[in-house]
Amino acid sequence: MTTATQPFAPGTYGADPVHSSFGFAVKHIVSTFRSSFNEVDATLTVADNGEVSLEGAAKAESIAITTPEQFRAHVLSPEFFDSASYPEITFRSTKVDFASDGTARVEGNLTVKDNTVDVVATGTYTEPVEGMMGETRGAVELSTTVDKNALGLTWNSPLPKGGNVLADEVTLSIHVEFVAQA
Q: Which residues does residue 83 pair with via DSSP β-bridges, in sequence order?
């Protein structure tokens, strides 16, 4: 866990759940289906030596799909997230780099349904500033692409003239507004 630049002072920063989101997008037949999780948590920890770690979790049950009810049940069933057996999707960094140009690169392990894959997410960070109530706030926005099958999300259905209902590649988009913890 190293940093090229360290915009965050040593300490622990927690996600502001109102201003943070974990989303995903996957091609469905002819267009891109997008959704997100409503209950997310993340922690950015900066050690005194400048090493950074990032951890995050989303509750599978908090998926933003609410209707139709049968679709929500299908996505939460063992065919997809199996939320009864695996209530959380988790991420733990192995390396975090913030570059002086405002770009961010995070390497780590994403776990869905006890299937863990190595991921590299890239994006940007916003240096911490003082918020409206005197709190310190910074942000990290990242995206990456993963193979859903490697995460145990193997459900699919063939189309009549070839291909499948869902693409294998899923794009993950993470936006976290961090607040320094006292």
A: none
The tally of domains found in the chain comes to 1
Task: Let me know if residue 58 belongs to a domain.
Answer: yes
Structural element, H or E, at residue 99: none
C-beta of residue 90 within 8 angstroms of C-beta of residue 76: no
pTM: 0.93
CA distances from 57 to 92, 109, 160, 176 (A): 9, 12, 37, 12
Q: Which amino acid is at 47?
A: A
Q: How many other CB atoms are found less than 10 A from the CB of residue 148?
A: 19
Residue 3, in any domain of the structure: no
103, with CB counted inside 10 A (0-12, 13-18, 19+), is middle
Side-chain half-sphere exposure of 24, counting CA atoms within 13 A: 19
Q: Has residue 172 been placed in a domain?
A: yes
The pLDDT assigned to 140 comes to 98
For 49, list phi and psi in degrees, rounded to 5.
Answer: -85, 5
Spans of the chain below 70 pLDDT = 1-4
Give CA–CA dist 126/166, Å, rounded.
34
